[in-house]
């Protein structure tokens, strides 16, 4: 996957501010989100762009050169988009999303919409709140994991992502190149509370059920972000977490991702809209399809229609 427009914009914001915290406040995202996108950009380029210290962020020579070029290029892109909006009238699009649904799809989706002359606005919420925003019309569309509980809404699976196992480096299986579902039988798996994100536990139980056993799960209440989850795993070497492989885009000291080699080890990214899609919702759906085609994601099953609430 190449660099996305969002990654480039976030890098420039951090380079301008020389601080992840200040850049995050300026861009209205979390510092961990910024860090995730900048690290992904560095990985795609194969070299570091920033030197991170406890007090300040500095540019590497490659980072300084890229920053200078991007500053000019992004100004030109902004001007082109402003001209397009002025000429044809921009379509404002409101998208609600859960954090994990945004790891891989959301940055590319925002790029696709912006480059098509639209004005997307994304708001992060819990699974339940995303569904409520779509149901009440506050969001034109939502992105969640496994929207089996989206009663009265239209659900379309955009991507069936591979799952992986995340463990402390001190975990007995941390050095394995890959695991099979049967390896989970004797592991204690961390469960995210259902009111925060029901999809992870549901997908894990579905995987284990396909192999004829009940997983041993321990529910832990954590703040809704990857950093808290990673920190908990790093401190508890007997716990493991089964989640989307794209979580590994943001590494954490002391935590390893181990591939899960099983055809059932998949978790959906679902697009949720009103049963009868508005023009704005259809624009978002079309952009999701375009991103899926660009990324080479296999076409999932046809979208599901759920009956509207009475």
Account of the protein in words:
The chain has 310 residues and is an alpha/beta fold. Among the domains are: 1-88, Winged helix-like DNA-binding domain superfamily/Winged helix DNA-binding domain (Arc Repressor Mutant, subunit A), CATH 1.10.10; 158-267, Periplasmic binding protein-like II (D-Maltodextrin-Binding Protein, domain 2), CATH 3.40.190.10. Helices cover 40% and strands 23% of the residues. The strands form two sheets. Strands 3, 4, 5, 6, 7, 8, 9, 10, 11, 12 and 13 form an eleven-stranded mixed sheet that branches. Helix 2 crosses helix 3 (31-45) and helix 5 (105-115) packs across helix 9. The longest helix has 28 residues, at 61-88.
Describe how the helices and strands are arranged.
Layout: H1 5-17, H2 20-27, H3 31-45, E1 50-52, E2 57-59, H4 61-88, E3 92-97, H5 105-115, E4 119-124, H6 127-135, E5 141-145, E6 154-168, E7 178-179, E8 188-191, H7 198-210, E9 216-219, H8 226-235, E10 239-244, E11 255-260, E12 266-273, H9 279-295, E13 304-305
Parallel strand pairs: 3-4, 3-5, 7-11, 8-9, 8-10
Antiparallel strand pairs: 1-2, 5-12, 6-10, 6-11, 6-12, 6-13
Helix pairs in contact: 1-2, 1-3, 1-4, 2-3, 5-9
């Amino acid at each position: 996957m190449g660099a996305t427009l969002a990654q480039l914009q976030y890098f420039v914001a951090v380079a301008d501010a020389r601080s992840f915290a200040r850049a995050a406040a300026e861009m209205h995202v979390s510092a961990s989100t910024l860090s995730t996108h900048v690290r992904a950009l560095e990985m795609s380029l194969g070299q570091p762009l920033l030197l991170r210290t406890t007090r300040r962020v500095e540019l590497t020579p490659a980072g300084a050169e890229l920053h200078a070029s991007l500053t000019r290029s992004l100004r030109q892109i902004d001007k082109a988009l402003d001209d397009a909006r002025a000429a044809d009238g921009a379509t404002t699009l409101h998208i609600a999303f859960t954090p994990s649904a945004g790891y891989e799809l959301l940055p590319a989706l925002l790029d696709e919409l912006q480059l098509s002359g639209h004005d997307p606005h994304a708001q992060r919420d819990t699974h339940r709140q995303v569904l409520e925003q779509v149901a009440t019309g506050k969001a034109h569309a939502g992105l969640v994991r496994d929207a089996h509980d989206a009663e009265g809404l239209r659900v379309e699976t955009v991507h069936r992502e591979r799952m992986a196992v995340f463990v402390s480096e001190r975990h007995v299986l941390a050095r394995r190149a890959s695991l099979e579902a049967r390896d989970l039988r004797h592991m204690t798996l961390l469960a995210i509370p259902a009111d925060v994100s029901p999809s992870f536990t549901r997908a894990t139980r579905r995987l284990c059920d396909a192999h004829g056993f009940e997983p041993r799960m321990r529910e832990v209440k954590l703040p809704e972000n990857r950093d808290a989850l990673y920190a908990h795993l790093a401190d508890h070497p007997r716990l493991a977490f089964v989640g989307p492989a794209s979580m590994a885009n943001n590494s954490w000291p002391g935590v390893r991702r181990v591939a899960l080699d099983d055809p059932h080890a998949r978790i959906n990214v679902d697009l949720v809209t009103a049963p009868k899609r508005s023009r704005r919702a259809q624009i978002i759906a079309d952009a999701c399809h375009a991103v899926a085609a660009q990324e080479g994601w296999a076409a999932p099953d046809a979208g599901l229609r759920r009956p509207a609430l009475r």
